[in-house]
Amino acid sequence: MTTGNRRAFLGQLGMAAAIAASGLPISAIAQTGAIIVPSGPFRLQRELERGLKGGQAVRVIREWDGRFLEDRNGLKAIGEQVSCVVSAPAVLEPIAEIERNRQDAGPFPAQIDRQGRIIKAGRAGGGADAAAAVSAAISILEQTGRSPGELEDAKRYLNRLARSADTVFADPPPDLFFPRPGRATDRRALALPDALTGEVRVTLEATARADGLLDRFERRIVTRIGDDVRPSHEIWTLRLL
Asked: PROSITE patterns, alphabetically (predicted)?
């Protein structure tokens, strides 16, 4: 792939990331009524799964304990991570161990307006931390005696992880804590170089409690490039403590 084609390809992926993060044009989804803010603590869980070659996947489940505070601008959600569980193919165990030990602030602190939408929030992960983790993991992998094919697949995934640290799943959905219940799907073709065909399909689905608080919010992203199909998804859930 030439430099010009590579730039065009990355531009297409950037557009796909923007589609996934934007919340989609979900005009068919009805707004909920007035939100009711709980006074006690809650536990927020995020399950993130990224598809790999051959049907394998990396799965990360994090939990945060948090609470809502009222201020003059609306609401503020604060919280801290309380657990992290990571499962991954054996060849990616070094990066899995780094991820288990990494503290992630998640969407906290989050500033929320009086309609329940996030105005400003933290971002999952961090570019510098991700790059350092990838570098360390590659160094460890090179000393484990893995086959050249296994090392190449692992390096490809780890480098892709570093490049995508600030893209598709970095920003929480804008209506994460008080979602609009419903389902929406968007599909976009990718204009790829070297006669390849591809598309990105994004699906959002949300349910809320009677008081408007998050029950379940799922984002599914399926990227197809030629014959290579990579599904990824994240699921957010919240329960009162």
From this structure: TAT
Question: Under a CB-based contact definition with an 8 Å cutoff, are residues 146 and 107 in contact?
Answer: no
What single-letter amino acid sits at 139? S
What is the rounded distance in angstroms from the CA atom of residue 32 to the CA atom of residue 45?
22
Tokens 């990838």 belong to 134
Structure tokens at 152: 């190449």
Counting Cα atoms < 13 Å in the Cβ hemisphere of 67 gives 6
- C-beta neighbour count of 26 within 10 angstroms: 16
State both tokens at 80. Answer: 């801290």
Instruction: Note the pTM of the prediction, 2 decimals.
Output: 0.73
User: In this predicted model, what pLDDT tens digit does every residue of 21-74 receive, in sequence order?
Assistant: 444 433 323 343 467 899 999 999 999 988 776 677 889 999 999 999 988 878
Of all residues in the chain, what percent are helix, strand and coil, respectively (each to 5)?
Answer: 25, 40, 35
Q: Tokens standing for 64?
A: 């945060």
Q: How far is CA 107 from CA 40, 67, 124, 150, 168, in A?
A: 18, 12, 7, 34, 14
Task: Name the residue type at position 180.
Answer: R
57's tokens: 């996947």
